[in-house]
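Budget justification aside, the reviewers requested a transparent look at the raw inputs and outputs of the sequence design task funded under Objective 1. We therefore reproduce one unedited record. The lines immediately below are the structure tokens for a 430-residue chain.
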């Protein structure tokens, strides 16, 4: 420990504590094993007096650090808790430093004579390497603390979150106009023209499709996982440049799980889990007896495929299903949701069913959108969402369709903040 005794006798105590999630939204729980106090016995004669500890935080480690600050002087005293990055030299998205929500005193404040403050703050290292951080307390006779260069007051709040799946499912009862669970398996989904289902992922806006039971290996156990789709496509491209409807070999699949995946931040990569993607298809979809969202939901999980095609694929990044598009509608005043779900999506382009597409956040009037689902009668057709709102088939080599990545987050991902709006999207942590 390096110490500065410009303030006289100061005893600095640091305690690493364990942090684990609770099921109260965005709160953290801490467990105290020992407490050591920090005391000021002489009023500082300078505007800023510092004592600090150098800490090494291991890869993937989270620490809660406790300062108990006592003012043993005869005057009021201002204090502020600060940090300084040593290695690396600056903070980034994978290093989180903030005051704990469990702290009984703020990281900045005033102590009257004889009073004390107990301050808890958190350092979380999500990187693959150890980090080195200086942490300390500054003192002043005034409320203005002048810290040296590269030292920053800890003002942000560190939040440990609830499991994302549990939180989203808990919203269903109070959001009947923007959420539903009426697909055959009761999956909780968002619906409507613009629900508050925005999430920050890879420093971009994505949207939550819903919560689904998903396995990470074929015939393995399922877990509830959050399914999200990028708000904007990554551009137009062929589903498969060789014009085959085998997703396991498709050029768009290899791009998404190769070049695109490698372009993600390390934090984003860590939030994604392998998933079993169902690849069942159909040859009949143009009438109310075979083309409803509920029909497609069954086709996708079935085994009807073109000869030799796989019925499932295990990987990280895919595309939306036709049923995702269908169940995302809330309908409107002319055609309600029940009527939309009772109409074949092949005919959603009709003016009498404009409420179905226009009140569906997955609809894009300026784009043809690929889905992951193959047409089963021939070797080279795939289902897509037409810009007019219908679901139809197209040659796999067509390069004018847009690709919007879809993925399942790991089951342990937590929501740590935000309200789901586009201006304040949900934030995520593993």
């Amino acid at each position: 420990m390096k110490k500065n005794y410009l303030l006289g006798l100061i005893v600095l105590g640091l305690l690493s504590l364990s942090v684990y999630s609770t099921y109260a939204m965005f709160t953290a729980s801490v467990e105290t094993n020992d407490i050591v106090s920090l005391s000021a016995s002489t009023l500082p004669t300078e505007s800023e007096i510092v004592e600090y500890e150098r800490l090494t935080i291991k890869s993937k480690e989270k620490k809660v650090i406790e300062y108990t600050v006592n003012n043993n002087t005869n005057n009021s005293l201002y204090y502020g808790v600060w940090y300084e990055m040593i290695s690396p030299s600056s903070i980034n998205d994978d290093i989180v430093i903030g005051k704990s929500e469990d702290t009984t005193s703020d990281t900045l404040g005033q102590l009257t004579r004889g009073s004390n403050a107990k301050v808890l703050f958190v350092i979380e290292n999500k990187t693959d390497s150890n980090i080195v951080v200086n942490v300390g307390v500054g003192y002043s006779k005034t409320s203005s603390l002048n810290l040296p260069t590269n030292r920053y007051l800890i003002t942000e709040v560190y939040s440990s979150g609830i499991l994302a799946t549990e939180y989203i499912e808990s919203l269903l009862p109070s959001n009947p106009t923007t959420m539903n669970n009426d697909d055959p398996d009761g999956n909780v989904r968002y619906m409507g023209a613009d629900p508050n289902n925005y999430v920050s992922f890879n420093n971009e806006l994505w949207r939550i499709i819903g919560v689904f039971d998903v396995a990470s290996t074929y015939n393995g156990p399922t877990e509830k996982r959050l399914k999200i789709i990028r708000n904007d496509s990554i551009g137009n491209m062929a589903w498969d440049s060789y014009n085959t409807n085998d997703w396991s070999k498709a050029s768009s699949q290899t791009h998404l799980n190769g070049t695109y995946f490698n372009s993600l931040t390390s934090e984003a990569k860590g939030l994604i889990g392998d998933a079993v993607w169902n690849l069942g298809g159909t040859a009949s979809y143009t009438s109310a007896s075979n083309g409803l969202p509920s029909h497609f939901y069954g086709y996708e999980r079935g085994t009807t495929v073109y000869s030799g095609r796989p019925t499932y694929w295990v990987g990280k990044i895919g595309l939306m299903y036709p049923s995702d598009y269908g169940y995302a509608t809330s309908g409107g005043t002319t055609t309600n949701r029940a009527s939309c779900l009772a109409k074949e999506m092949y005919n959603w382009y009709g003016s009498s069913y404009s409420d179905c597409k226009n009140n569906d956040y997955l609809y894009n009037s300026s784009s043809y959108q690929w889905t992951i689902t193959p047409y089963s009668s021939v070797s080279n057709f795939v289902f897509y969402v037409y810009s007019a709102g219908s679901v139809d088939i197209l040659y796999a080599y067509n390069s004018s369709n847009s690709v919007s990545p879809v993925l399942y987050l790991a089951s342990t991902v937590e929501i740590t903040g935000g309200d789901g709006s586009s201006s304040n999207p949900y934030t995520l942590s593993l």
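The chain is about 10% helix and 35% strand. Helices lie at 164-171, 251-263, 266-271, 293-300, 322-327, 337-341, 354-358. Computational costs for records of this kind are itemized in the attached budget.
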